[in-house]
Amino acid sequence: MRDVRVKDLTHVLAGAWVWLYGDPEGWRFFTNATYDPDAGDTTVTITYSDGEVVREEPWPQARLVHAGPESIPTATRPGPAGLVPR
Questions:
Q1: How far, in whole angstroms, is CA 30 from its chain's centroid?
Q2: Cα separation of 33 and 7, whole Å?
Q3: Which pLDDT value is given to residue 8?
Q4: What are residue 4's DSSP bridge partners?
Q5: Which long-range CB contacts under 8 A does 72-79 form with residues at least 24 apart?
Q6: Among the listed residues 5, 57, 62, 4, the one whose alpha carbon sits nearest the alpha carbon of residue 28
Q7: Cα 32 to Cα 83: distance, rounded to the nearest angstrom
Q8: Could you count the other beta carbons within 10 Å of the beta carbon of residue 18?
Q9: In this predicted model, what pLDDT tens digit does every residue of 63-84 receive, in sequence order?
């Protein structure tokens, strides 16, 4: 598990678990994230595994765990991810 900026999610190639700080939803598996400030878009577009698409600011912190959708992280603070079956 590591802390990243929301815009860093665009560098994850195959999806992962993410928890945006302040998001009451908690851990969510995202399948895609795009950020293209050169095209005039200053937000990060995140697509979650349930099909929901949200737009977030690029700088807030997020917690990231590289794990597949068959498990879910339980950790709420830095340290081992504590993955459990979904």
A1: 6
A2: 8
A3: 95
A4: 62
A5: 72/17, 72/27, 72/29, 73/1, 73/17, 73/19, 73/27, 75/1, 78/1, 78/3, 79/1
A6: 62
A7: 21
A8: 22
A9: 999 999 999 998 776 566 688 8
* Distance between CA atoms of residues 48 and 60, nearest Å: 18
Nearest to 86 by CA among 32, 28, 47: 28
Residue 48 C-alpha from the chain's centroid: 9
Q: What is the CA radius of gyration of the chain?
A: 12
Q: pLDDT for 4-52, tens place per residue?
A: 999 999 999 889 999 999 888 899 999 999 999 898 889 999 999 999 9
Distance separating alpha carbons of residues 86 and 76, to the nearest angstrom: 17
Pairing, β 44-48 against β 53-56: antiparallel
3-class DSSP state of 41 = coil
